[in-house]
Amino acid sequence: MNLAYLTRGAASAERARARMLRSGYTVWGQKLWSEEEDLICRLFHPDYFALRQILCNRTDRAIQARCRKLGLVRPRQSWEWLARQKLRKLYPEATYDELCAAFPDRDLQNIQAAARYYGFKRKKKPYKKTGVPALDAVRSRCYDVKINMRELDEDCRTKKYFQKRGCRTQYPNFRAINRAASYLGGYLDFHFPPET
User: Fold this and answer.
1) Average pLDDT of the segment spanning 142-157
2) Residue 77's CB: how many other CB atoms inside 10 A?
3) What span, in angstroms and rounded, lies between the C-alpha atoms of 176 and 181?
């Protein structure tokens, strides 16, 4: 590729730019954006409905692209392979503050949206302790084998005990707890405190 070829290309581009400024249209016949249209975009920017009404000769995509070019819209942030791998590793267990510290140039909503897009999920929190050791053991076993309380009620035929009343510690239903323990492959055992 010689210098004369590059010079000819640069001169041709300069002539095309001058022709576009003179005619007000691009090479493909699209109307150039004027200063008045740019001012309208700056004034009404977040309200795309108003922009569509005022700039009726522009399409939605053209208005969005022009707002992005004018710097009114935050530029899209791409998630490269290394950033995706880092997010995949951190997202299940890291706190939101740790995620924001790991990705300082992105806000939390962007991180959560990317995690949803790529299918990364937060690790489910363990069930709360109720104070009844037998019930706590059943709930922790359900957490380990990934059974929720609705499935446990359906499989053990305990109506809605584990969904609604299982967290109440006043009157534990040991018959339902025994069914759940048997279903999960365990058994219910009683230990009396030693006499003093």
Assistant:
1) 82
2) 13
3) 9
